[in-house]
Amino acid sequence: FPGEQLHAHYYRTPEPLVDKRVLVLGIGNSACDIAVESSRVAVSTDLAMRRGAHIIPKYLLGVPTDRLTDSPLARGPFRFQQWSMAALLRLTQGKVTDYGLPQPDHAILHAHPTVSQDLLNRLGHGDITVRPNIDRFEGSKVFFTDGSAAEYDVVVYCTGYKVTFPFLDDTVVRAEDNHIDLYHRVVDPDHDGLYFIGLIQPLGAIMPLAEAQAHWVADLVTGVGRLPSRAEMRREIATYDAKLR
User: Fold this and answer.
1) Do the strands 63-64 and 44-48 form a parallel or antiparallel pair, or are they unpaired?
2) Which range among 34-38, 55-59, 62-66 has the greatest average pLDDT?
3) What is the pLDDT of residue 144?
4) Which of 5, 51, 60 is nearest to 28 (CA)?
5) Residue 52: which of 90, 92, 96, 91 has the closest Cα?
6) Residue 157 to residues 22, 41, 141, 213: CA-CA distances in angstroms?
7) pLDDT at 111
8) What is the pLDDT of residue 76?
9) Given its phi and psi angles, is residue 79 left (phi above 0), alpha (psi -120 to 50 degrees) or beta?
10) Closest CA to 227 of 197, 186, 198, 167
11) For residues 49 and 129, is the Cβ–Cβ distance under 8 A?
12) Exposed e or buried b for every residue in 7-37, given b needs 16+ CB within 10 A?
């Protein structure tokens, strides 16, 4: 591909996309935010994805959506949470397929949702074109899995991140397939005093949880809190991983 290829990790401002034919790959938060910004400055913006996603606005019922995690809605049974969120989204914005997005292959809240206040609006106005997954490149032309093709100047990959710790030796900790065995997602049971903050992907905002993790680490460091045995920590890790799978 002779044009520019960029990962979302290195994206800062939309200036490199001005007057370009832009293809954004992904349907997560970064992909939607970048596609929306691109659609305001680029000649054209296409959004390609391998699967659908539920799009949740940043505001629902007049409050930031992540505030709903502290509401009575979040304290009900999980099935009720799903039904309530699906009903709210249907009432406020309709189906994602009405905007040209593929039907998600999972129920709401079964995977990390995509939060965007502007994506559906830009799609509805025709400022962003939806494409399926990329099949191959031939020069500046990109072929998609449905047989269609188009030429682009810039491809932005919003395809996730690889967890690495270059400041720690592999004999200390290693993330295999982005997974690390941590007690309550914070404590390394094999290395006393080694803690990790923010290695979680919640349905809501990460900042309050990272703050709670930091308070717990502070208690462990000062001796206010205590950890169970290594064997018990490993049992908790195994149980959590099994439930997650």
Assistant:
1) unpaired
2) 34-38
3) 98
4) 51
5) 96
6) 11, 18, 16, 31
7) 83
8) 86
9) alpha
10) 186
11) no
12) ebeebeebebbeebbbbbbbbbbbbbbbbbb
| Cβ contact 154:144 at 8 Å | no
The pair of structure tokens assigned to 130 is: 């939806």
Any residues with CB less than 8 A from the CB of 126 and at least 6 apart, and which?
A: none
| pLDDT 10s digits, 139-183 | 999 999 999 999 999 999 999 988 999 999 988 988 888 889 999
- The predicted pLDDT at position 102 comes to 97
CB atoms within 10 A of CB 128: 27
Tens digit of pLDDT for each residue in 176-234?
888 899 999 999 999 999 999 999 988 777 899 999 999 999 999 999 999 999 999 99
Q: How far apart are CA 55 and CA 12, in angstroms?
A: 23
Across the range 31-45, mean pLDDT stands at 98
User: 220, 227 in Cβ contact below 8 A?
Assistant: yes
Q: Using CA atoms, how far apart are residues 52 and 49, in angstroms rounded to an integer?
A: 7
Q: Where are the alpha helices (DSSP H) in the chain?
A: 29-41, 78-93, 119-124, 207-222, 230-244
Tokens of residue 203, six digits: 């349905």
Instruction: Measure the CA–CA gap between 68 and 5, rounded to whole angstroms.
Output: 37
